[in-house]
Design a protein that fits this description.
This protein is of the alpha/beta class. The chain has one domain: 3-Layer(aba) Sandwich (Rossmann fold), CATH 3.40.50. The protein is built from five helices and four strands. A four-stranded parallel beta sheet has the order 2-1-3-4. α4 packs antiparallel against α5. The radius of gyration is 15 Å and the shape is globular. The relative contact order is 0.18.
């Protein structure tokens, strides 16, 4: 039997538009972290719709998108979160104060929606973003997150973002 909602860690993924990276991260963590985590996502300036390449990349990986239309941070800022994870620099800079002192972590990465090119180039950018987010979440799931103090958890999660960023930049 999975732990109750109160025992699962609540994670909020933030980006600017809540149309690509944060939606992907929410879907991946809800699938892989089922029973341990509850993920949601929002944006500092929500877009009109979720990028269709996100839904396609998730589908290719066998993850059904059960998300939501892009929504703003204001809708979720007063809720209690264990972890608030920004996946873009703009969201990091505009991140509000959350109650309960959640672990605040930044996993910066390129925005696949900004890639210019033909359809295959765009699809590749979203697949690459999916792989990076998925890998970071795998590393997150390997942590004994429920047993770590907030600051220790925050530092370990930050290290995941830094490690993966330096790896992808050196390729």
């Amino acid at each position: 039997m999975p732990p109750s909602t109160e025992q699962r860690l609540r994670v909020l993924f933030l980006c600017t538009g809540n149309s690509a990276r944060s939606q992907m991260a929410e879907a991946i963590l809800n699938r892989k972290g089922r029973g341990r985590f509850i993920a949601e996502s929002a944006g500092s300036q929500p877009a009109a719709r979720v990028n269709p390449y996100v839904i396609e990349a998730l589908h290719e990986a066998g993850i059904e998108w059960r998300g939501h239309q892009p929504r703003g941070i204001d809708d979720l800022v007063h809720e209690n979160w264990d972890i608030v994870l920004t996946v873009c620099d703009n969201a990091r800079e505009s991140c509000p104060v959350f109650p309960g002192q959640p672990a605040l972590v930044h996993w910066g990465m390129e925005d696949p929606a900004r890639v210019v090119g033909d359809e295959e180039t765009k699809r590749r950018a979203f697949r690459d973003a999916f792989r990076l987010i998925s890998r970071r979440i795998d590393l997150m799931l390997a942590l004994p997150a429920e047993k770590l103090e907030r600051l220790a958890l925050q530092e370990r999660l930050r290290a995941i973002g830094l490690e993966e960023s330096s790896t992808t930049q050196s390729r």
